[in-house]
Write a structure and sequence with these properties.
The chain is of the alpha+beta class and 154 residues long. The chain is built from 5 helices and 4 strands; from the N terminus they run αααβαββαβ. The chain has a 4-stranded antiparallel β-sheet. Helix 2 packs across helix 3. The longest helix has 14 residues. The mean pLDDT is 87.
Length: 154
């Protein structure tokens, strides 16, 4: 696909931006031995290809959300995609996946404390039309949460 079109300089550029997503085009150019306009053009081309985007990632714990829940959702009487879209609108929900297996939808949710968890599980989630049953698991130790994951690490 598109990723095959990236050359060695592009890959180095991606690595630099993974280390510092706010790196100036001038600094990128200097590090890569290319001109500033070339660095800018390469970043825009890589972003346009869909291989990379530069984004800010919030730190949930630093924002007061100390708890992470994985939630399985069983759907009934409504298409799973509609239920998933409604669940995605809940601010504490940061990941929604339609899945095959025991549940129809899997969520990742952040919460401030146990009272907030109780509110989310017993009031907010179950009130979404089409939610038949939920199974929530509280993360006690997060071994990997890598928002900068890319499929082309060497």
């Amino acid at each position: 696909g598109e990723m095959a079109a990236l050359d060695e300089t592009d890959w180095r550029l991606v690595e630099l931006l993974r280390a510092d997503g706010r790196m100036a085009f001038r600094a990128l150019a200097d590090a890569l031995g290319i001109t500033e306009p070339a660095a800018r053009a390469r970043v825009r081309a890589i972003e346009a290809s869909g291989c990379m985007k530069v984004v800010a990632v919030a730190d949930a714990a630093a924002s007061g959300f100390d708890l992470l829940l994985a939630v399985g959702v069983e759907v009934d009487g409504r298409p799973a995609v509609e239920v998933a879209e409604a669940l995605a609108a809940i601010p504490e929900v940061f990941s929604v996946s339609i899945v095959v297996g025991t549940y129809d939808i899997e969520l990742l949710i952040v919460a401030r404390d146990h009272e907030h968890v109780a509110e989310l599980v017993t009031a907010t989630l179950v009130r979404v039309p089409g939610v038949r049953r939920i199974q929530a698991g509280l993360a006690v130790d997060v071994l990997k949460n890598q928002p900068d994951w890319v499929p082309f690490d060497e």
